[in-house]
Amino acid sequence: MKIKTLIVDDESKSVMLLQKYLEPYSHLIDVVGTANDAEEAFLSIKQNEPNLVFLDISMPGSSGLDLLNRFASKNFEVIFTTAHEEYALEAFKLSAIHYLLKPIDLLQLDDAINRSSAKIESEIQKNAGSPNKRKIMIYTDNGYELIEIKEIVRCEAAGAYTELFLNNKRKILSCQNLKSFENQLESNNFLRVHKSHLINLEEVKSFTKGKSCYTNLKDGTQIFVSNQKKNDFLQRLNENFIIEVE
After folding, report:
1. Is 188:172 a contact under the CB 8 Å cutoff?
2. Nearest 10 degrees: CA dihedral of 79, 83, 110, 233?
3. Is the pTM above the cut of 0.70?
4. Does the N-terminal peptide bond of residue 103 adopt cis geometry, omega within 30 degrees of 0?
5. Contact 42, 67 (CB under 8 A)
6. Start-end ranges of CATH 3.40.50.2300 in the chain?
7. CATH number of 3-126
8. What is the pLDDT of residues 123-168, one digit of tens each?
9. CATH topology of domain 135-240
């Protein structure tokens, strides 16, 4: 499932530019419509039921903030795109995911998309009846899969993608980056032990300490634990397991 997205901005050039910026995320973002003012946006939100709205603040007539205040409750996330810095506080009071100042910085846009993706996935899981986060939504180029978190042995970065290794020897290539999975799984006993590796601590079989630290997983994989993460890794093991010190 892709994230249904609406772009709201009174400047046509800004709409087209943002659409261009979103093209590399076509595997994740589906732009279902655009709107040039608050009234058109209100009707489009009702009709298209987007998961995510990129919203300009300063527009003729009603502002983007006025638009949000028309919803007693909203079932979509908001990323503000504006040239006006002074509205940031009010925007975050309305639970905005991010506040992007024009001209839009592409790194900040990437961060905003990752944040919104993680939050939307979490909400989908809750609505799917997984209040204890027993399952996770995995987005792929072909759609999505809902899998049990306990099935995941480890996640490995593959450029902007992530490869998930399951305990049935199956692999899934997700179009989400590793940071997105770290945000979703860190509360489920997962730890990022290296810039490229996120592991399920329940799958740890043994580890080797020394100048270099490695962990051996139950599937036979050996993963290097970076020096920056070594103390975190050992502390988490001590918190969760009884470790015999020789």
Report:
1. no
2. -80
3. no
4. yes
5. yes
6. 3-126
7. 3.40.50.2300
8. 766 655 444 457 888 888 877 788 899 999 999 999 889 999 999 9
9. OB fold (Dihydrolipoamide Acetyltransferase, E2P) (2.40.50)
